[in-house]
Structure formats: C-alpha cells, structure tokens
C-alpha cells in the first residue's frame, strides 16, 4: 500500500518579499513529494513564515503561533515549524518561549525546509539559525498570488542602515541577483500567464551596484521589456536619492513600465532625516518628486512617513504636515515610530509619548484622506485601462485595478453594469470613472470611439 503523503500547510505573514521566500519553500516541498494543503485543519504540519519588522508584526507572529498550537490539541496537526524574520531576530529563544514549536529556520536557512519537515515527521526537533547571507537567492517557486500578477525579488538585504530599522540585522547586507537570472524568471512568469510583474527589494533603486558597480534598475526594466511581452511592469520600494536620469527616462519612454512609483520619504525635515540616517535629505526628496511629476500628469506616487520619531518637535512635525499638503501624494502610508530593539534609535533621547504619536498620526491621516478625496473627484470622467481581478456577486460588479493601484496596498475600481461572464481575471478593459467611494473608484465599461483613452 502506498504511504499516505504528509500534508503541509503554509501561513505567510508580512511583506511581498517574505511571500516569495514562502513560495520558494513551497516549491522545494512540492519537489520533495509533500502534499500542500490550503486548509489548516487538514494539515499534518503547518509552516509559519514570520515578519518581525515592527512591534505589530511581532505581535501578529506570536498570535499565529498560539493559534496554530491550538490545532495541535484540537485537530490533526502534528507539527509546527516557524521560519523567517522572527527566527532571525530571536533564534532559539522562540523554542523556550513556545514549547509547541517543533522546528525553527532563520531567513538564512529557508532552503532546509524539506529537512525540517522530515525531522518533524519523525518526532524530532530541528533548529537551523544561519546568517541571512547564507541563503541562495531565487530558485523554483510556487506562485501563490492570483495568476495575473506576480512579484519578483531583484535583491535581498539592505545597506542603508536607517537608525529606526531592524531589516539589515534580519536580512543582511544588500545583494543583487544577476540580471540574467531575473530575465529568465520574468520569462517563466510570462509563461505562467502573468500580466503584471512587480519588482521588489528592500531598495530596488540600488539594484546592481554591488554586482556591476553602478545602479542598473533602469537597464533591468528595459531588458525585461525587450525580452518579454508582459503588459505591465511595476516597481516598488525606491529611494529618493537614487532616482537616476536613466530610470526617469525609462518611466518616460517605456509604455509597459506603469506610471507608478513607491518612494518612501519617511520625513522632510533635514534634522530628523539626518537622525534617521536617511540619505540625500530634503533636497533629494523635493528634487526627485518634482522630476517624477514632470514625466507625466498621470504619474502616481506612493510614499510612507514616520511620525513621532525620537526628538521630533512640533515645528518639525508641522513642516512634514505642510510638505505632505503641498506634495499631494496619491497614496500615503503613515506609521507611528516603533521603538525596535537592536536599532540605534532605540537609545535616542527624546522618545515621543504614545499619545503625541497618535495625535500626529491622526493629523496626517485626516489630511491625506481629504487629499485622496480631492484626487479621486478629479478622476471622475477619465477613461482608464484596468486589469480585471474578479467578480463580486454581492455588489454585482467586477473589481479591477488601474496602473495607479498596486495590489493589496491600494484601492480598486469597481465596474458596474457589465454582464457576469463578460470578463475573466487577467483581462484588460477600458472603463470610464464616474464616482468614488472612500478610497475606491466606480466605473462603467467604455466602448465609445470619440475619446481616446487618457491612461
């Protein structure tokens, strides 16, 4: 009689870069003959790939460990493996804190996942905590995103050493993947039917500096465009001091590089930026945003800021608030400063109170909500190309994204009036926007010929 395959379930927390580590582990387990199940209650072993970037991420990881541990007592679960950033930060401390955990793998040990599962099958503990640089980059993976889009990690680690950030300690030094490997992976994604390829790294704009002695992001995008027919290419996690003229030219001239950029600024006051160890300062931020806006009136810019950084004065916060009002970012993520152990900022004087951070967070988010409402109102009447994501039977509408919307983090465009079987996920359509609801837009299919599509 054939031996029953062990069923393995996965839970992946955190960012898209972490998700790709999960996809690589899925690929390795699939090759090793394990059965992957999406149902946690059916799994023999569950693998939790964790994030620990900030306090909330660590809390989420701990909550998931406890939830999965409950399945060991109340379902068929026999083993729990914890991987990723939390293990890289805390190592074997996790085993002492959570005896329910059967194995741990750090970021540097993810390629040992099949060995860890085998050990847990045999009732053994498995521990592997290695430096992050020891894990090879890339590898065959099982793509877990919807078929029409996929992420591609072009580099790993970070050398920027922002004083508030634990990422360099978790992910190690910056390492680019060879361009030929990335082009091959892009071709593989195209064969899978991917319509949107999203380039990610801790710092995408630094891509190539370590391998080729200069920034090569623009060349990479150009090469992918030349060697594939993927309609949309999107780039996230750019730094304002590394926006090169070559990259600006690529945005201007490459129609398949969507007019969208994610460029975290974190603050605008030079003294705060210096304490954060953010390179380039206010001048680099203002200059880069101005150049990007100059490419096209439809250029969509997403950014993030931190409020309540140690020592941030009322005047410095007011400067940030005033700049955000002037810059009118299309998308903005706002974070209260999180005091992270092992980072230089942890020991900075002038820690801002929890109440003050919450007050400043509220001020920024309320102002940004007004800006988004104004920007969305301006979009009414525009004709845009959208990528169909699916159909919502409750609202009887399709939901989609335009070039201006990155998956998972931005809004959607809901399409009313179209027949239920008119589209499939991954189809493109032209729509005319006629309303906005919160951060989302509402549109109808556009079939006219009098007006050329604007975007």
Characterize the structure shown:
This protein has 455 residues and is an alpha/beta fold. It folds into 3 domains: 128 residues, Methylthiotransferase, N-terminal domain (Rossmann fold, 3-Layer(aba) Sandwich); 227 residues, Alpha-Beta Horseshoe (pyruvate-formate lyase- activating enzyme), CATH 3.80.30; 66 residues, OB fold (Dihydrolipoamide Acetyltransferase, E2P) (Beta Barrel), CATH 2.40.50. The protein contains 14 helices and 19 strands. The strands form 4 sheets. The chain has a 6-stranded parallel beta sheet with strand order 2-1-3-4-5-6, with helices on both faces. The longest helix has 26 residues. It is globular and about 60 Å long. The C terminus is likely disordered.
Tags for this model:
OB fold (Dihydrolipoamide Acetyltransferase, E2P), single chain, pyruvate-formate lyase- activating enzyme, 6-stranded parallel β-sheet, disordered C terminus, alpha/beta, 455 residues, Rossmann fold
Present the secondary structure layout.
Elements (H helix, E strand, L loop, with lengths): L6 E6 L3 H16 L3 E2 L8 E6 L4 H20 L4 E6 H6 L2 H5 L5 E4 L6 H9 L4 E3 L20 E5 L1 E2 L10 H5 L3 E2 L2 H13 L4 E5 L8 H4 L4 H11 L4 E4 L9 H9 L3 E6 L7 H7 L4 H15 L4 E8 L6 H14 L3 E6 L17 H26 L3 E10 L4 E6 L10 E4 L11 E10 L2 E6 L10
Parallel strand pairs: 1-2, 1-3, 3-4, 4-5, 5-6, 7-10, 10-11, 11-12, 12-13, 13-14, 17-19
Antiparallel strand pairs: 8-9, 15-16, 15-18, 16-17, 18-19
Helix pairs in contact: 7-9, 9-10, 13-14
């Amino acid at each position: 009689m054939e031996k029953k395959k062990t069923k393995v379930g996965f839970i992946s927390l955190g960012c898209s870069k972490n998700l790709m580590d999960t996809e690589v582990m899925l690929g390795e387990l699939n090759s090793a003959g394990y059965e992957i199940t999406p149902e946690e209650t059916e799994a023999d072993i569950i693998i939790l790939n964790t994030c620990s970037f900030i306090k909330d991420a660590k809390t989420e990881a701990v909550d998931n460990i406890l939830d999965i541990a409950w399945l060991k007592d109340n379902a068929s679960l026999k083993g729990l493996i914890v991987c990723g950033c939390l293990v890289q930060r805390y190592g074997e401390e996790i085993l002492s804190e959570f005896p329910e955990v059967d194995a741990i793998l750090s970021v540097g040990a993810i390629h040992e996942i099949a060995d860890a599962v085998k050990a847990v099958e045999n009732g053994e503990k498995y521990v592997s905590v290695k430096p992050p640089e020891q894990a090879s980059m890339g590898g065959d993976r099982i793509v877990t995103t919807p078929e029409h889009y996929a992420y591609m990690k072009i580099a790993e680690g970070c050398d920027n050493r922002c004083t508030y950030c634990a990422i360099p300690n978790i992910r190690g030094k910056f390492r680019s993947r060879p361009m030929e490997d990335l082009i091959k992976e892009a071709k593989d994604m195209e064969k899978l039917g991917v319509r949107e390829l999203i380039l990610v790294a801790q710092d995408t704009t630094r891509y190539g500096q370590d391998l080729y002695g200069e920034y090569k992001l623009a060349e990479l995008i150009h090469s992918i465009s030349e060697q594939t027919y993927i309609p949309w290419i999107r780039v996230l996690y750019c730094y304002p001091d590394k926006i090169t003229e070559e990259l600006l030219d690529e945005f201007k001239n490459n129609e398949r590089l969507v007019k969208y950029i994610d460029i975290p600024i974190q603050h605008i006051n030079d003294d705060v930026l210096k304490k954060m160890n953010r390179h380039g300062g206010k001048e680099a931020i203002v200059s880069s945003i101005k150049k990007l806006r100059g490419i096209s009136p439809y250029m969509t810019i997403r950014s993030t800021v931190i409020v309540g950084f140690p020592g941030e004065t009322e005047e410095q916060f007011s400067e940030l608030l005033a700049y955000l009002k002037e810059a009118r970012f299309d998308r903005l993520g706002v974070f209260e400063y999180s005091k992270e152990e092992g980072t230089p900022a942890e020991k900075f004087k002038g820690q801002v109170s929890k109440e003050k951070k919450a007050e400043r967070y509220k001020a920024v988010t309320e102002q940004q909500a007004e800006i988004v409402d104004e920007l969305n109102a301006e979009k009414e009447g525009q004709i845009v190309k959208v990528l169909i994501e699916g159909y919502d039977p409750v609202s009887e509408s399709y939901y989609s994204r335009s070039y201006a919307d990155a998956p998972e983090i931005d809004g959607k465009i809901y399409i009313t009036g179209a027949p239920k079987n008119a589209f499939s996920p991954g189809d493109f359509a032209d729509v005319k926007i006629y309303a906005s609801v919160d951060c989302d837009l509402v549109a109808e299919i556009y079939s006219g010929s009098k007006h050329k599509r604007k975007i």
